[in-house]
Amino acid sequence: METMLLALDEGADIETKDNEEWTPLMRGVVLESSFPILQKLLERGALVNAVDRRGQTCLMQAVLSGREDVVKLLVESEADLTPSNVYNNTALDMARAREFKDMLPHLSPKPVSLKEMKKWKKIIKEKM
């Protein structure tokens, strides 16, 4: 981790992509880098929603790698739950297909409360 931090301190581009169009964060998820390294990359500004040439996001790669802890970290870091890859699968679709039941609550859109719906209806009505 010290080498990575030193490279970033010296100006290494945190979003440099390899021939697969993977960023260091994406590669770290797939290679099962330590959780603290992934945290540091995010703290240093790694794009949580970067996409590779197949439309895969870091979140999708975390699901495919079976890394629930990383899925949770990425969602907490505001990973977008909605993108689909070139096969038209979302991270949620992938978790369901692999029966990763513990990941599903992290990947499911949060339900909107009745109170929240009423609030938005009122705002929309006022603007009309």
SSE map:
Blueprint (H helix, E strand, L loop, with lengths): L1 H8 L14 H7 L4 H9 L14 H7 L3 H9 L14 H7 L6 H4 L6 H14 L1
Helix pairs in contact: 2-3, 2-4, 4-5, 4-6
Description:
The protein is mainly α and 128 residues long. The chain has a single domain, classed as Ankyrin repeat-containing domain (Serine Threonine Protein Phosphatase 5, Tetratricopeptide repeat). It is 51% helix and 0% strand. The protein is built from 8 helices and no strands. It has helices at 2-9, 24-30, 35-43, 58-64, 68-76, 91-97, 104-107, 114-127. α2 (24-30) runs parallel beside α4 (58-64), α4 (58-64) packs antiparallel against α5 and α4 runs parallel beside α6. The radius of gyration is 17 Å and the shape is globular. This is Ankyrin repeat domain-containing protein. Keywords: ANK repeat, Repeat. One of its GO terms (molecular function) is ubiquitin-protein transferase activity.
Structure characteristics:
128 residues; mainly alpha; Serine Threonine Protein Phosphatase 5, Tetratricopeptide repeat; 8 helices; 0% strand; globular; ANK repeat; Ankyrin_rpt-contain_sf; Ankyrin_rpt
- Uncertain regions: pLDDT < 50 for 5+ in a row? none
- Strand proportion, as a percent range, falls in under 5%
Q: Report the count of strand segments.
A: 0
Query: In whole angstroms, how far apart are the ends?
Result: 54 Å
Describe the largest sheet.
none
Helix coverage percent of residues? 40-55%
Could you say which structural class the secondary elements and strand pairing correspond to?
mainly alpha
Based on the structure, what is the oligomeric state of the protein chains?
A: single chain
